[in-house]
């Protein structure tokens, strides 16, 4: 931008002098003192290189050059005001629409309470929620499809800022009729790794966390791959194979006895639940509110 017109505040003040007939009236309209207004006009004159206001004991008025500059500046200042109004409208729209992407565990078992809390803080915010595996969530946040993401995967692509909300335990679960449900000995990592499981698809945070926990051992191919936690639980109840799922997702079934938890020793079956957003951005508005609610609620 040309240096002489990079700052429009002085031109806006000059237009007020032309409209209101003096620096004092223009100063009052802009909410500043008359000395401050005079100083800004003098700074503008120094930048432009000509006298813009003629001062006399009876007051001040635009010089001939000042009138010309004011005519040239008017559409520029008005266009800047339109730009500012447009940006404000966009920000207002952004602040009333929040797009959230979340992994299945967070979307089904944690987010409903967090969104209810957000409703009390920001009742005018409309939230659009999509769920998928952690890899899909990360992609949506990076691409700008989602303002905020919640993931359970241990690995994230570059370009995302992540903050841990809480640690989530993974549970090995079987049907009550499975031989492991009646055994007293605990399961070792090598035995779990060699057992075909009912598993989430690749890209799932649960599956990746299990792969890393059993990294020293070669994992057997899944008996069945499903993209739904509910479907996996149903398959386990039918006795197809064991599964490893987040503790929150199987709490009801464990309490009712439709699934049985089997202890695994010698492996760290924990994973972090995290909130993510683009590293180049600072959270504001409802996105910042929801992230804070999640940090407290988790």
UniProtKB/TrEMBL annotation:
Gene3D superfamilies: Periplasmic binding protein-like II, Winged helix-like DNA-binding domain superfamily/Winged helix DNA-binding domain
Domain HTH lysR-type per the UniProt entry, residue ranges: 1-63
Lineage top rank: taxon: Bacteria
GO molecular function, one term: transcription cis-regulatory region binding
UniProt-listed Pfam families: HTH_1, LysR_substrate
The entry's keywords: DNA-binding, Transcription, Transcription regulation
Family: Belongs to the LysR transcriptional regulatory family.
Stated name of the protein: LysR family transcriptional regulator
Organism: Amycolatopsis alkalitolerans
